[in-house]
Write a structure and sequence with these properties.
The structure holds two protein chains of two kinds. By secondary structure, chain A is α/β, with parallel strands linked by helices. Chain A is about 65% helix and about 10% strand. In chain A, a hairpin with a 2-residue loop joins strand 4 and strand 5 (about 390-400). The longest helix of chain A is centred in the first third of the chain and has 127 residues, at about 140-270. By secondary structure, chain B is of the alpha/beta class. Chain B contains five helices and five strands, in the order E-H-E-H-E-H-E-H-E-H. Chain B is globular and about 40 Å long. The chains are: A alpha/beta, B alpha/beta.
């Protein structure tokens, strides 16, 4: 910076100096040239004094000539020029004296000349008088002749003196001209010298300036070249850092997964209580290490700009509630007040990246819980409309924890920063979470703000824009005949590194009587699939160590033909088209997008097993009533599904449904008769839920109408008619159900 | 299976249909708990159709109560909280409802022993998580 300033100053000074020098030179040259030109112009003009002198000479000659002519002709008429010349000469001398008044010596000479000329004219006048005295006589007397000769001699002497003086004046004027010429020449020489000096100086300065500029450019080029080299170096280092982090994270995660896998196996082998506790500690430590490795990997991905953002529809309320519930246990273990407030105007479906939102929320909320020992942690979700198609999702996470000092607020988003140096020792963590969350927020075009007071608590505000997504069909209205028999005793391998996702799948599968094993990464999938025979693998797309696609590729290349052909369903939050292409190429059987509904999974499983089975062509008998299919009136699948196809249970439940519905209708009838509308509404409400559960749409519609009408005691005149229709609908339904139960029990 | 860890669960649901449905669901959880926690678990369920029955008969060593919010005769599970807690002070109470506002109401209660579960498609997973957390501490 200093060098740059100095160089610029030097250049500026040099330029100012050159401009001043050029200006001065120009001015001086102009002045000199003007003087010279004026001098030349002046010298080139005829000298007025000399002209006057010449004219005086001419006048004298004229006068002499006039006198001579008169002398010869004796005619006075020829004396006219004489008198005129005398008069002219007088005027001219006056002028001449005026011109010479400033030059003392010349003035003296002019005065002398004037006197001589006067003498001359006096002599000539005497000559004229002498002539007049001749009076026409041709012969002079001796005295006249002598007088004439004396006058002539006197005239000659005067004339000689006049000539001498004229010569003096001419010489004097020539001297002046010569002197002025010499002066002009001197000035011209001086001007030339000055111009040469200035031009030389300017040239030297320009050369210095050019040298400085060249040196600067050269230096600049050198610096640029160094900078380019440094940039390449930095980029190389960044790449190396990223590669290192990625490799390191994977390297760390590999043994961690092995630890997790084996601790799980050890726990399964049911060791003693003490060993279990120790293994449990190892497992927890491994899980903690895994979190750190994942955070480092995320950060390196974010810094390298390799974190991709998906655009899929998701249900925000479910996602936020899931996160809230995932951490509920921690809040309860600290006896914290733990609340979730969700804006009722929050759109049902949003479009964006649910995984990243979940990651941010989990991080902020777990931080709030981690740093709060007493009081409360509140998660509040607000939605403000942007336009018709978008909203701004604002999530406020408020805690009454240790808070952050004001001077540390700006630093906590820095990598590896925590509010205080002892924080990481006391509470653990890498200090990467907030940095990752902030970067993720920015990637989602959102923002994250923190308000905090040390010792009082912290408020984190997330604001993320989302477009409103399309309604995800829940499949309830689809005419889906779920054939749970085909699922029973199937063996499925669940592969997902997320414990919550695995748990969700386990609960769903368990209800259908499906046997399952779990794997937390692709490597474990391969190991387990080699040891066991699975009918299907539910494979997460993104898993540590070995992702879903790579694991599928390895399965497809297994020696054992049967194992290599196992159906694989890829579970993905949001696979890009490119990823889907890769997955298909790897041999994925089908896809299931997260978040998925129980029915979606069943539908897919049944379809796959149906295709795989050659002996399942036998169709279940179709139950109908007056030409209407039972499936159109109700659906026992939810019961079959949740009971793991327990027919006895389904039969018992159907019986309860029939009995409670019939009893309910009877109670409604009695209450209608006694116009006890509150009871009518309460009983209708009670029998509505089971009807909803078995998807008995028509029956439910009638029950709800009775409940609504009687709740406000309005349209009570129609209630009796409605109850009659309800009774008839229930009868038809019950008849169909009894037939179906009979068939199921067969 | 000797020395099985027993978890006592109470169900308070005035609909006989859902009461039975919940029993079935919760019984299914025992195998999952065993698998997840590597311990043998036996879930003992006491189910009640009325609030009065529940308050009178609930066992003091019950670990967990699943209660529907709206009960018959205009009684709500909210009204029973104090009575249940008196009878079994250590039990965790899960109140379930299809009305979201109940959740907001319950959030106002500064009581970590009470949890709200919104009855949606994932309610059974959430229920399992509560049970899992209790089982983990046994």
């Amino acid at each position: 910076m200093k060098t740059k300033f100095s160089f610029e100053s030097n250049i500026l000074l040099a330029i100012i100096f050159i401009i001043t020098a050029v200006g001065s030179t120009g001015y001086f040259a102009y002045k000199s040239m003007t003087d010279i030109i004026n001098a030349v112009r002046k010298e080139a003009r005829p000298d007025e004094k000399l002209i006057l002198l010449k004219e005086i000479i001419l006048d004298i000659s004229e006068a002499e000539s006039s006198v001579k002519t008169y002398t010869i002709t004796n005619n006075k008429i020829y004396l006219g020029p004489f008198y005129q010349s005398a008069l002219h000469i007088q005027y001219k001398f006056e002028h001449l004296k005026e011109l010479s008044k400033n030059e003392r010596r010349q003035k003296f000479v002019v005065d002398s000349l004037n006197r001589l000329v006067e003498t001359k004219f006096a002599v000539l006048k005497e000559m004229n008088i002498l002539q007049e005295n001749r009076q026409g006589k041709y012969v002079y007397g001796q005295a006249n002749i002598e007088k004439q000769l004396a006058l002539t001699r006197r005239d000659k002497e005067v004339m000689d003196q006049i000539r001498t003086l004229l010569k003096k004046i001419e010489d004097f004027e020539s001297d002046i001209i010569l002197r002025k010429s010499a002066d002009a020449e001197k000035k011209a020489d001086q001007a030339n010298s000055f111009i040469i000096v200035i031009i030389t100086s300017i040239s030297i300065l320009l050369l210095v300036l050019a040298f400085l500029i060249m040196r600067y450019i050269k230096k600049g080029r050198h610096y640029n070249s160094e900078l380019r080299k440094a940039k390449i170096e930095v980029e190389k280092m960044a790449l190396a850092k990223e590669a290192f982090f990625t490799r390191m994270s994977h390297e760390i995660r590999t043994p961690i997964h092995a630890m997790l896998g084996f601790t799980q196996q050890l726990l399964k082998s049911a060791p003693g209580t003490e060993q279990k506790q120790q293994i449990g500690i190892i497992k927890k430590s491994a899980e903690h290490l895994l979190t750190i490795a994942n955070e480092i990997l995320d950060l390196s991905k974010l810094e390298a700009g390799k974190m991709t953002i998906e655009e899929i529809s998701f249900i925000p309320k479910e996602l936020i509630t899931d996160v809230f519930l995932m951490l509920q246990q921690e809040a309860e273990s600290k006896h914290l007040k733990y609340t979730l407030l969700i804006d009722e105007n929050l759109p049902h479906v949003l479009k964006g990246d649910p995984l990243r939102l979940k990651q941010i929320l989990l991080n902020i909320l777990s931080n709030a819980l981690k740093f709060t020992q007493k009081g409360e942690v509140q998660l509040e979700v607000l939605s403000s409309r942007g336009d018709e198609k978008s909203i701004c999702l604002t999530i406020k996470i408020k805690d009454t924890g240790i808070g952050i000092a004001n001077n540390r607020l700006n630093e906590i988003f820095n990598e590896f920063e925590q509010a205080e140096t002892h924080t990481s020792r006391k509470f653990g963590g890498t200090g990467l979470g907030l940095s990752i969350s902030k970067k993720l927020c920015e990637l989602l075009n959102g923002s994250i703000e923190i308000e905090s007071e040390e010792g009082r608590g912290t408020l984190v505000i997330l604001s993320i824009p989302y477009s409103i997504g399309e309604i995800i069909p829940d499949g309830k209205n689809e005419d889906l005949a779920l054939e749970f028999e085909k699922l029973k005793n199937k063996s499925i391998l669940i592969a997902d590194d997320n414990e919550y996702n695995r748990q969700l799948l386990k609960v769903i599968l368990k209800n259908s009587g499906i046997q399952y094993d779990e794997a937390v990464d692709g490597k474990m999938v391969i190991e387990l699939h080699e040891k066991n025979d699975y009918d299907l693998i539910l494979m997460d797309l993104v898993m540590p160590e070995l992702g879903g696609i790579k694991a599928t590729e390895m399965i497809r290349h297994m020696q054992n033909k049967k194992k290599s052909k196992v159906p694989v369903i890829l579970l993905t939050a949001a696979a890009s088209e490119e990823m889907m292409g890769k997955a298909k190429a790897a041999g994925i059987t089908d896809f299931l997008n997260k978040p998925f509904k129980e029915n979606d999974l069943y539908k897919l499983l049944i379809n796959i097993f149906e295709k795989a089975s050659v002996n399942t062509k036998k169709k279940d008998p179709e139950i109908s009533f007056n030409g209407e299919k039972a499936r159109d009136r109700y659906n026992l699948n939810p019961l079959l599904r949740m009971s793991g196809n327990d027919k006895v249970f389904v039969s018992e439940m159907t019986e309860i449904f029939i009995r409670t519905t019939q009893e309910g209708i009877k109670e409604i009838k009695n209450a209608v008769a006694s116009k006890n509308w509150d009871t009518v509404a309460d009983v209708a409400h009670r029998i509505a839920s089971p009807a909803r559960h078995i998807e008995a749409g028509d029956l439910l519609k009638l029950i709800k109408q009775i409940e609504d009408d009687s709740r406000d005691a309005r349209n009570t005149e129609n209630i009796s008619e409605c109850v009659a229709r309800l009774e008839q609908e229930a009868q038809e339904l019950i008849s169909l159900m009894e037939k179906e139960i009979a068939l199921i029990n067969k | 299976m000797k020395n099985k860890n027993q978890i006592k669960v109470a169900i308070l649901e005035d609909s006989e249909y859902f009461n039975k449905l919940m029993q079935k669901r919760i019984l299914n959880y025992s195998e999952m708990l065993t698998y997840d926690l590597h311990k043998e678990f036996k879930i003992k369920i006491n189910s009640y159709l009325t609030a009065q029955d529940c308050v009178h008969k609930i066992e003091a060593d019950t670990h967990l109560v699943f209660a529907d919010f709206f009960l018959e005769d205009k009684i709500t599970a909210w009204d029973l909280l104090k009575d249940i807690q008196e009878k079994c002070p250590k039990c965790k109470i899960v109140i379930m409802s299809q009305n979201k506002n109940i959740g907001h109401l319950l959030n106002l209660v500064d009581d970590h022993t009470v949890t709200f579960i919104y009855k949606d498609d994932d309610a059974f997973v959430k229920g399992y998580r509560v049970l899992y957390d209790i089982a983990r501490r046994i």
